[in-house]
Amino acid sequence: MRRAIYPGSFDPVTNGHLDIIERGCKLFDEIIIAILINPEKRPFFTIEERREILKEVLQEINRSTCGLRVDDFEGLLVHYAVAQEADAIVRGIRAISDYEYELQMALMNRRLEPTIETVFMMPAEKYSYVSSRLVKEVFQLGGELNGLVPSLVEERMKQKMASG
Ligand code: PNS
Question: I need a surface site. Which of 9, 56, 95, 103 has the fewest CB within 10 A?
Fold first, then answer.
């Protein structure tokens, strides 16, 4: 039984994230999608909203190739990973520019907890420029999100915007 943690802010979840989850499912029996509780950031969606959106979106894509679970965590990722009895942390790398920061995190995490491996995965090229940050910017400036995020995410973003 191989279990991985796929950590992130997921604010919001993008098609790039989903692509990584689907690929990760080929390597692991179970993936826990773990949303970081970060009191310092002012997110678009609350933790509860992100958890709910992720669950709904994953239900749509889950072709039961592996077990998927949505959770949130605070504090050190490696502490959470050990508590969940995970073998690995999965991170998506879109471009070389991601690599430097991801390498730093992976090596720091290894120093903190040598039993947990970090696995870098590449999303499909068509998602290589998709990030939650850009999705929010494009949305807030009235751009089209078609193909970048699941339609449910775009709907929820519109609802949230409309409700102030
Ligand atoms: O989606 P993101 O914002 O790029 O995810 C970053 C995340 C959640 C993976 C990273 O910030 C993290 O692991 N935070 C938890 C705190 C921690 O363990 N810090 C030490 C990392 S070396």
Answer: 95
In short, whether 8's Cβ falls inside 6 Å of ligand 1 is yes
pTM over 0.90: yes
Go through the domains of the chain in sequence order and give each one's CATH number: 3-162 (3.40.50.620)
Pocket flag, ligand 1, residue 122 (CB < 6 Å): no
Q: What is the pLDDT of residues 32-83, one digit of tens each?
A: 999 999 988 899 999 999 999 999 999 977 666 899 999 999 999 999 999 9
Render the chain in DSSP notation, one character per residue.
--EEEEEE--TT--HHHHHHHHHHTTT-SEEEEEEE--TTS--SS-HHHHHHHHHHHHHHH--SSSEEEEEEE-S-HHHHHHHTT-SEEEEE--SHHHHHHHHHHHHHHHHH-TTPEEEEEPPPGGGTT--HHHHHHHHHTT---BTTB-HHHHHHHHHHHHT-
